[in-house]
Write a structure and sequence with these properties.
This protein is α+β, with helices and mostly antiparallel strands and 218 residues long. The chain is built from three helices and 14 strands.
């Protein structure tokens, strides 16, 4: 029994969840590649834009540090259509854990006076895109870091595994000519090991043994 309990404790520690940066884009050196990924993340896709192109910001455009960022115009005046995109692929045997405050998303941004005033984060890991988080943007041509300082809670990614594709929409712009720049795009999350069938059986047997032992001791 003691050996079984020890094995169960080791398995519990091995599959314990850990919160960390899952993927981050800082665009240093005018690069669209991820600057950081989590320990359970195998790969991360390049940051891209649905409109096909964007410009790198190397200096100026506000006082939020660090710079640079990426910027493009022509955002939607109505419902979400244009978006930034990125992706990550979890290592085999791992999944995301979606418990309160376990998954958050944030970014610095600069929206011009005619830029988008709303944002929305959608995700797809095999069943189509669904909205995970949303919020408002301050469109006054100044850099804002509120979403990095206080990331938005992400909901709906429970048990997501494999490759997860994300879309960051900008919409409700007064004019389709407005510009939206982003920097320090960060998805913070919690991952955990997916127990193998043999492990689940072992845990089940351990639980049954403990119940039987209690009954026999009465």
């Amino acid at each position: 029994m003691k050996k079984l309990l020890a094995i169960m404790a080791v398995l519990a520690l091995a599959s314990a969840a850990s919160a960390e940066v899952l993927v981050q884009y800082t665009f240093t050196g005018s690069s669209a590649a991820a600057s950081s990924i989590g320990t359970a993340v195998q790969t991360a896709g390049n940051f891209a834009n649905s409109q096909g192109s964007f410009g790198y910001i190397s200096t100026g455009m506000g006082t939020i540090s660090p710079q640079p960022g990426v910027s493009t115009a022509t955002w939607n005046q109505g419902t979400p259509t244009a978006y930034w995109s990125f992706s990550l692929t979890l290592m085999s045997g791992y999944k995301l854990v979606d418990s309160p405050d376990a998954l958050t998303f944030g970014f610095n941004y600069r929206a011009t006076g005619t830029g988008p005033t709303s944002w929305q984060l959608d995700a797809d890991w095999g069943s189509g895109f669904s909205t995970m988080a949303s919020g408002t943007l301050t469109a006054n041509s100044s850099w804002q870091n509120g979403l990095s300082a206080t990331p938005a809670s992400v909901t709906g990614l429970a048990d997501a595994s494999g490759t997860i594709n994300f879309r960051l929409y900008g919409y409700n712009a007064p004019s389709a000519t407005g510009t939206w720049a982003v920097d320090n795009v960060t998805l913070n999350g919690t991952t955990t090991a997916i127990p193998e069938p043999a492990t689940m059986s072992l845990l089940g047997l351990g639980a049954l043994a403990m119940v039987l032992r209690r009954k026999m001791s009465k």
